Amino acid sequence: MNGTTSLVNYSITIPDGDSNINLSSYGLNYVYYNDSKNSSPLVGYQVNVTYPNDDTLSLTTDSEGKIYFPSASSNTIQTGNYQITFQDLLGYETPYNFNKTVNISQLPFNVTQNITRADLTINLRDAITNDLITENVTVAITDIGTFTTINGTLFFSNVTFNSQAYTITTTSQNYTYSQKVFTYTNQEDLNVSVYMYNTLTANVGSVTVSVYDSFLDIVQSADVRMQEFDSATSTFQEIGSSFTNSNGQSSFQVLLEGKTYRFLVTKTIDGVTYQEYSSEDGEVIFIDGSDIPVYLDTIIDYSDSYLENYVINVSNTTLVNNISYHQVSFYDNNGLDQTVCLAYNQISGLSKVNLFTSCVSGSSGTINYGGGYDLTSVLADNRVEVEVYINTTGTPVTYYSQIYVGDNSFESLFAVIIKPLILLSMILALGLSLKIKRIDYFVYLEIFLSVLWLIIAPSYVSGSFMALNVVLGLMILFLAQKKNNMSDI
Q1: Same domain assignment for residues 147 and 111
Q2: What is the 3-state secondary structure (H, E, C) of 376-398?
Q3: Number of folded domains in the chain?
Q4: Which CATH number belongs to the domain containing residue 49 in this structure?
Q5: How far apart are CA 211 and CA 476, in angstroms?
Q6: SS3 for 362?
Q7: What distance in Å separates the CA atoms of residue 172 and residue 220, rounded to the nearest whole number?
């Protein structure tokens, strides 16, 4: 049928006498969904139906918690296996699937399904022996209630949870208080263990964990997990958890001088999750009331963070007869749009002038210069930088940069011939100055040659080299003058 009118063959036996038959409802299948705990209908939730011929329907339960659908699909009455799925519903054991196999005589059908709620089991254990605690313990669970047990176990069947974090707090006359946080995200069965120390036999103290960011500001509502070292398995086991308060602190009770503890702190700030241990190897706590600071490294390298889920590949980086065939391929692992650019820049001394830039925006793509970019005329007298950068936020982040020099350019000639000549001239000038005992001649010539180097090959390195030579030359002149003055006395 599927939104159109169709004719199907079906036999109806009408008894003698007057009969009222509602043909509009004949052939409709009904499925009712109820809460198994209180039998109330589950209203407004999605159910998917797959016919034996694989046609599908997406339906929503009405005020009675039911869905209904015809026995016919694709102009044919469907017999065989119907697959019916109640979709995810927080607090219930979903998705819930059931199959209904029918023949022609069993159509239409009418069934009721009871959806069960989640189960929660809380085990209260001695933190030293790991045995269940067999004395009176009061257990408070946020948004659920307060309960007591004398056998170390609390079991809750058919509990409706919201998707959130719940805090378990335990108190007992002879055991330490303890906290444990668990998060419900549509699990069917939850098992939570809470560990407590016997105050009659254990040396118990308290410890405060203080959480700070990189600017030494306190961090509120950070998730703090207390882990205890298990020597039998050489692993750390979580025995307590809580969230930091308005002062950025969280308190726990621990066994003094007896166990090795570490604290794992996690906090999500502006969509970025930061995590840090108080100590990777843990530590033994000797002093009651100890304060353990944990510092979250909230200052991250911008480029590393920006490129974390981004992959860029630059290929064909070798020039062929001074022609660039650079190709840039990129994609974002998260499917987010980015702007990637390929740029050619002319470098003359300390200045940089853009020759050509091509940018592509998207979650993936490829950039190149069609037919290759001919750099012959530019490389004759200048250097060329090929640069790949990301410019999504308006602030370019360079991913790749390579500078090319022409084989017959002045810079290549300078590197091969003139640089060695200048260096050789400096050495000869030094030898001549020492022979005629006029070191000032060497200083003057050295400064002149350094300035010449900077003029014909301007760069930051050349400028630094010239400045260093000037300073050294002046120092040599000063020392020589001082020696001459002493000789005249």
Answers
A1: no
A2: HHHHCCCEEEEEEEECCCCCCEE
A3: 4
A4: 2.60.40.10
A5: 57
A6: strand
A7: 28
Is the pLDDT assigned to residue 453 strictly greater than 90? no
301 is a domain residue = no
Domain match, 423 and 470 both = yes
Distance CA 85, CA 310 (A): 38
* 282-335 confidence digits (pLDDT tens): 899 998 999 999 999 887 544 444 556 677 888 888 888 888 898 888 877 766
Contact (Cβ atoms closer than 8 angstroms) between residue 124 and residue 115? no
Give CA torsion, residues 139, 142, 145, 150, to 10 deg.
-10
**C-alpha angle with apex 101: 99 to 103, nearest 5 degrees?**
160
DSSP string for 277-322: ES-SS-EE--STTEEEEEE------HHHHHTTTEEEEEE--S-BTT
478 contacts 486 by C-beta, under 8 angstroms: no
Peptide bond into 41 cis (omega under 30): no
Handedness of CA 56, 60, 62, 64 (dihedral sign): positive
Phi, psi for residue 6 in degrees, rounded to 5: -140, 155
Answer yes or no: is 19 within a domain.
no
* Judgement on whether residues 150 and 262 belong to the same structural domain of the protein: yes
Match 């003057």 to its residue by tokens.
444
- Model-level pTM? 0.41
Confidence of residue 349 (pLDDT cuts 50, 70, 90): low
For residue 138, the enclosing domain spans 118-295
In the block, which residue shows the tokens 């919201």? 162
pLDDT band at 480 (very low <50, low <70, confident <90, very high): low
Q: Is 15 exposed, middle or buried (0-12, 13-18, 19+ CB in 10 A)?
A: exposed
Do residues 372 and 428 both lie within one domain? no
